[in-house]
Amino acid sequence: MNRINEEPQIHDDPVENRDNDDEEDDDEDDQYEYGDGFLVDSSDDGEEEEEDEEQRHCNEKKSRNRRKKDEAFSLHEDDYLLLEDNNVDFQRNKYKRLKKSSEEEEEDKINEDDDDDLSHFIVDEDVPGDHGWRRKIKKFKQGTDSKALRYDNDIFGDPEELLKLRRKDLAYNEKIERKLEDEFEPIVLSEKYMTEKDDEIRKLDVPERMQIFEEVTGNAPVDDISIEEESNWIYARLVPEQGPGFSVSKDDIVRFLEMSHVQKLEIPFIAMYRKEQCQSLLDSSDDDGSDFNLLKKLETKWHKVLWMIQDLDREWLLLRKRKTALFGYFTKRFEEETCRSDLNKSLFESVMKSPKAAETEREVDDVDSKFNLHFPHCEIDEGQYKRPKRKSHYSICSKFGIREFANKFGYSAEQLGFALSLEKVFVDELEDAKKTPEEMALYYKCAMFEDLQVVLKGARHVAAVEISCEPLIKKYVRGIYMENAVVSTSPTPDGDVVIDSFHQFSAVKWLREKPLRKFEGTQWLLIQKAEEEKLLQVTFKLPENQINWIISECSEHYLSVGVSKYAQLWNEQRKLILEDAVHGFLLPSMEKEARSLLISRAKTRLLSEYGQVLWNKVSSGPYRRNNNNTSDEEAAPRVLACCWGPGNPETTFVMLDSSGELVDVLYAESIALRFRDVNDQKRKKKDQDRLRKFIRDHQPNVVALAAANLSCVRLKDEIYEVIFQMVEELPSVVEAGIYDLPVVYADESLPRIYENSRISREQLPQQAGIVKRAVALGRYLQNPLAMISTLCGLGKDILSWKLHSLQDFLDPDEKYEMVEQVMFVSGLGPRKAASLQRSLVRAGSIFVRKELINHGIGKKVFVNAAGFLRIRRSGLACSSSQLIDLLDDTRIHPESYGLAQELAKDVYTHDIVRDDEDDAIEMAIEYVRDEPASLKKIVLDEYLRSKNQENKKETYSLIMRELSCGFQDWRSLFKEVDPDEEFYMISGETKETIGEGRIVQATVKKVTSGKAKCVLDCGLPGILLKEDYSDDGRDIVDLSNKLCEGDIVTCKVKSILKQRYHVLLVCKESEMGKNRNLDYYYHEEERNSVRIEKEKAPKEKKQFKSRMIVHPLFQNINAEQATDYLSDKNIGESIVRPSSRGLNHLTLMIKIFDNLYANKEIIEGGKESKDIVSLQRIGKTLKIGNETFEDLDEVMDRYVDPLVTHLMTMLNYRKFRTGTKSEIDDLLRVEKGVNPKMVVYSFGVSHEHPGSFILSYIRSANPHHEYIGLYPKGFKFRKRMFGDLDKLAAYFKRHVDDQGHY
Description:
Number of helices: 50
Subcellular location: Nucleus
Main location: nucleus
InterPro entries: HHH_9, NA-bd_OB-fold, RNaseH-like_sf, RuvA_2-like, S1_domain, SH2_dom_sf, Spt6-like_S1, Spt6_acidic_N_dom
Strand order of the largest sheet: 6-5-4-7-8
Number of strands: 23
Helix content: 40-55%
Region (Disordered): 1-70, 97-123
Family: Belongs to the SPT6 family.
Largest sheet: 5 strands, mixed
C-alpha cells in the first residue's frame, strides 16, 4: 500500500473520543480489518461504500450549516420563555440554536489553528493488524486513496476552501449572536423587568423590596453596636413626632432592626409571626390576657408604626452612608494636603471629627460646607478634565491675604460655636489690639484691595462667611429659627386675578405669620405650587425679638469686654460682622432649609394619607349574599353590572359568573329615556322586556350600577321597575332570589382605568370599552383586592386612580412604592412574584408549601412569604389523588407546624382518648378542622403554662384561629354606599368642592317671582330663593326684576338636599362675608383693609387684564373706550373686548340703537386655570347663554349676524316707534283718543335693558308694557320664540286679554 501524505480536512462536529476498550474487545474488531473504510481493499465495493458514506456525511454537514444560518439571530430558550411570559411581540425562529460544549469549541480552535494537524494519520502496510489504530481510524471514517480524494474534491470542493468558509461562518455566527438587550429597546426591558439587574434581583435570596432598599442605602449593619446606636437615633425621633400619649419600647425597636437587618424579615411577616418580639410597635394586641375569644373576627391592619420605623431606618442608613463617604473623602484630602506648609492641621482634625457627631442630614451638610470653605479642592493638571469654577468673594479675599486679617478680629467661628453650644467655655478674655482696625488694614492693602474700607469690608465678609458656615453656630440658629419663624402669603398681581373663591389656592391666598411648626398637613404643597406659578408671594420671617436674641447671644461671646478706645472700635467691626453673618447668610440659609423641611413633612403626610386610602380600598371585603358568613365556602355572587351610556356608547349590562368571567352582554339604549313620543315609549318598552328576559335567564345575585351622573338615579329606578314587573307578572316562575334582588351603587373610577388599560385589551380583546368597564365594575364588587391587583402590573395603571385630591404632588415612584408596600406579599415584589407565578403555571399544580423553594425562591424569601401563600385543593390539584397538608391551607407558618400539630393532638387525644394510631397527627388536625368547637375547651393561658410557652401567646392565638377556620377573610364587611357617598359619587364632587359654606358659581336657568332655578358648574341643580338673594330680599317684590335667564351669579352653598340632589344657594352679602373653614392664620381683615383703601383712593377707570387674542373684531379696550369706538358706527356693529369679570370671560358689545349698546357675556372654557398664559389666550369653547361656539368667527356667523338681522327687522317694522317709554305712551294715548275702541300698541327699544324691546299697548285707559327678548333665533315673547314679527303681533292680538302672563 501507498502512504498518503495529505489527507482531507476532518468534517465538522466529530464524534467525541471514546474510552479505550479492554483487550477482550479486540476480537470483535477483527471483522472490520479490511472493511472498515480506512484500509483500502482491491474490491470496488469498498470504494463505493466509502463514497456513499462520505457523501452522506457531507450532506449532513450542509444541513447543519443551513440550520445554523437560519438560527443566526436566535436567542436562548430561557429568553424566549421570559418574552412569552411578559407578552412581548416577537417572531421565534423555527429551530433552536445548539451551543457547543467547551470541549467541542476547543477542538474547533485546534482544527482552525493548524491545517496539518491530521498529517500524522498515515497508513502503514507493515502494521495491518493494529486493532487500536484501526479502531481510531474507524471513528473518523477517512478515505485514503487519491482517486477517492479527487472524487471528493470534485463534489465538495477543495478542503482548504471549505476550511476558510468554515472560519468565516464561525466568525459571522459569533458576531450576530445577540442578547435581549440587542433585540429590544432598554425602556421595554426595564418596564417588563427583563434587564440583567432584574435577573440578579430574582435570583438573590433576599426579599425583593429589601434589595431595592439596600441599593440606595447600602448594606445594613448587623453588629450589636450599630443596631443599638440606630435604635437610639430612631427612638429619639419617633416619639416626639407622634406627640403625647404615644409610647413604644426601645428594646422592641432593637429587636425589629435585628429581624430586619440580620434575619432579612419584612414588616408583614414581623407583624404576623413575630408579634411577641415587638408588641409595643403594633397597633394593638389581638387578644388580651384571659379574654382570648376564638370567635372574634380579626381585622387587617397596616401597622403604620413599623413602616415609620422603616422610613427612619432608611434615613439613618443614608445618613451613615453619607458620613462614611465624607470621612473617607476628608481622609484622602488630608493625605493630599499634608505637603502644604500653611495647612491648619488643628482645624483639619477638628473638621474630620465632626461627621461622627452629626445626627441629621443638615448637620452633615454643615460639616461638608465648612470643609469645602476652608479646604477648597484645587484643580488637577495631570491630564484631568477641569470644570470652570466661579470664584467667590471669600476665595478672592483668601487669595490676597485678607483672611489673615480677618483672624485678628478675635475669637474664631469655631470658638464662637463652642461657646454658644456650651461645649467649651473660654476663660481667657479676648486681648484687645493696640491699633485701630484702619491702621491694621494698612498692612493688607494691595492691587485688588486698594482702599482701607474695602480691606475692612473684605475682612468682615470673610469672618461673616466663616461664622455662617460653622456647624455649631448653624445648629444653634436652626433650633431658634425652626421653632419661631413664621410664613406669610399674599397674591401677586396675576394671582389676585386668577385666584378667586373657587380656585385651588384660595385657602392659602392670604396667610399672616403662620408659624413653621403649625404646618402639619399638606397645605405647604399648595403654597409651593402657587409660588412656582408666580401667583403667590411667600415670605419667611424670624421675629425681631428672636433675631436680636441671636445677635445678643453671639455678641456676649464674640465682643470684647474692654472699655478702651481700641476695644470699642474693634467691637464696632465685630457687630457689623455678626449683623452680616445673621442677616446676610444665616437667615437666608435657614429659609432654604425651612422650605425643604416643609416639603418633606407635607409629602410624608400626603403619602401616608394616600396609602391609608389605598389600604382602606384593598381591605374592603367583597359583596356577599350573607354578610355574616366570612368563610370561603360561599361562592362569589353572580353579578349583573351596568354602566350608563349617553347613546354612543349605549347603556350596557354585562353578566358575570361567580368566577368573574363574562357570560353575556346586553345593550339597552332607551331604557333610561324620558320618552317624548310614542316611538320613544315603544323603544323603552322593548328594552325593558329584553332586560327582564336577561335577568330571568341568568339569575344574578346582585345588580351593580356605576354611579356616574344624575342619569344613573333614574336608571336605578328603571331597573327596580323591571324587577317589580317580573315579580308581578310571573310570581310562580321567578326564583326567590329575584324578589329581593339588590341594586347597589359602585364607584366607576377604577373600572374606567381598567377600560383603557393594557391588561383589559389582553383579557377582553374583542369587547367595547364600556363592556370592559362594566366587567371591571362587577369584578370589583366580587373581590376589590383582586381587581385592584390587576392594575398593579407592568403598566402601573393603578397610579392613575384618584385616591387623594393632592396626589399629583407625588412622583409616580413615590406612589408606586406605597402601592408595593400595601399590595405585595412579604418577601415578594413585582419581579419575584411574576417569576414565581410563571413557574407555578408551568408546573400546573403544587401540593406542599415547601415545594415553593423549587420554584425560584430561596430560603429567606420562602420564610417571608410562605405563611401568606395558600396551598389548597383547587384547579389541577382537584383531579390529583395526592393528599394536601391541611396546615398548608392556613396562615400558620411552616416553622410553627410542630406547635400546631402538638396542640391538635392534645385536643384530639383529650376528646377521642386514643394515642396509638400511626396517623394520629393527620387525624387530629382533621378532627380540629371539622370540630372547631373543640378548641373552645382550651384555656390558653393554662395551656401555655403547661407547655412553658408563655412567650408564645400570639403565635398560639393565631394557630387556634387558623385551625378553627383557615384563611378566614379578615377584610372588613362589604358596606353599601351611604347617602353622602352616593351623592358625591353621582355628582362627581367632593366635600371640599361642594360642601356647605363653599363658594360656587351658578347659571340662572329660570326665574320666577319667588325663586331662581340655577345649574352649578358640576351639573347639579340649585335653588336661590328671593329672601336669600340679598340682605333686603324681603323688600324684593319680583326676583325676575333682579335676575335674568343666563345670568351667572356667585353664591355660597347654604345646604344640600342629598336625597333630591339639589343645592340651596345664598348670595347675601352678609353670608358671603362669613368665613368658611379657613386656616386660623387666614387674615381676612387685611384683605378687607386693602379693599377699603382701594375704595377710598381716587376713582379710576375700571381696569381689565389685557388678552393675547388676535381677531379683527377684538380690541384690548375697556367699556368706555368701546362705547366711543361704536358711537359713530352703524346700528348693528359690534366689538369684542376683555371682560372686567376675569380672564375666563369676554364681552360682546353690540350697538342696538343710537347711544344704546347691549353687552353679551361670553364664557370661555377649556382653559388651564393654573397657567396664566393659557388664561390670557382665548378659550377652546365660547358660550353665550346656552349656545356654545368654537371661535369668534362662529360667534359672528351663528350669533351676531342672525341677531342683527332680527334687530333691523324690528327697527324697520311698521309699528316701531322711537323715543323713551313715556314718549311712546303719550303717542299711544293720542292714537287711543282717535280710535277709542281699538287696542293700540307699538314697539320700542328698552333703555333700561339694552338688547330688549318694549311692547307698549293700551286696552282701556292705562298703558301696559311687556318686554320682548332679542335672540339669534328670533323674538321671545311670553316664553315663546317667534321667528317672524308679524306672527308675534298676531299672537299678541289673539291673547291680549290673557291674565297672568307678566
